[in-house]
């Protein structure tokens, strides 16, 4: 049988917009972007060959067809929600889908997951790569562990987890010989490597150690922190990175921190969740576990 009904995503977008009289308010309630709501409505109208909303300067208004369609689907949507609620049980396995930057996943999160599995065997944690410009519209993602200084769309809550310490790193050979690094200003005589998306990190670090008057010019930049660290391992230069991302390389002696200065970074990794999911016990357990790992 050919399925002719729209997707649940489109139906929820339509019902919320109709009830609230606003695409932006519907986006806030469903914890997606306004653009995602607009696209869902447009596809719904195109699929069914109807115009359900009149766009006005003060908001939106249902057409007669829109009112009829809302009355036809409201009971069905409520039935589906009630059935989902009735089927949930704390005793059955739960799956959480977490979006996380690949470097943080590989260097910080994955080495700790055995502890998570031991503590919460009933909760399956599935990882997905996060995007630098993530808009929180992916309905398959339950939470995002992403870098931010703390500004998020309405409907999204966030708590700091880890990553607000910047440190300088170099190759062990940079601490040897007659021209060994002995004080922070010596870093300026070496090739300065930086993160493409956070090129201001060098300025922040230099300002914090009293070298703000010095000019600097990065010699190369890298999209991912893992690539930046590997460039230091290869002896291509020196860099400043978040301390939480270099445990393996420091422990193996592939890189060193030439100075003890830990500079406060404005950007840290935040666990972002939809405000509507606050009652999700598994998400709350994940939040508390992440905080404990970062302590």
Characterization of this structure:
The chain is an alpha/beta fold and 295 residues long. The chain is 38% helix and 20% strand. The chain contains ten helices and twelve strands. It has a five-stranded mixed β-sheet. Strands 10-7-11 form a three-stranded antiparallel β-sheet. It has a two-stranded antiparallel ribbon with strand order 1-2. A hairpin with a 2-residue loop joins strand 1 and strand 2 (59-62). The longest helix is centred in the first third of the chain and has 24 residues, at 64-87. The N and C termini lie far apart (55 Å).
What's the SSE blueprint?
Layout: H1 8-20, H2 23-30, H3 34-48, E1 53-56, E2 59-62, H4 64-87, E3 94-100, H5 102-109, H6 113-119, E4 123-129, E5 143-148, E6 156-162, E7 165-169, E8 193-195, H7 201-208, E9 220-222, H8 225-233, E10 239-242, H9 247-252, E11 263-264, E12 268-274, H10 281-294
Parallel strand pairs: 3-4, 3-5, 8-9
Antiparallel strand pairs: 1-2, 5-12, 6-12, 7-10, 7-11
List the total number of helices: 10
Which value, in Å, is the CA radius of gyration? 25 Å
- Strand tally: 12
Question: What's the main sheet like?
Answer: 5 strands, mixed
Order of helices and strands: HHHEEHEHHEEEEEHEHEHEEH
Alpha-beta classification:
alpha/beta
Shape: elongated
Taking strands numbered 1, 2, ... along the chain, how are they ordered across the largest sheet? 4-3-5-12-6
In round numbers, the mean pLDDT is 87
User: Helicity range of the residues?
Assistant: 25-40%
The low-confidence runs, each spanning 5 or more residues with pLDDT under 50, are none
In terms of DSSP E residues, the strand content is 15-25%
End-to-end distance, in Å?
55 Å
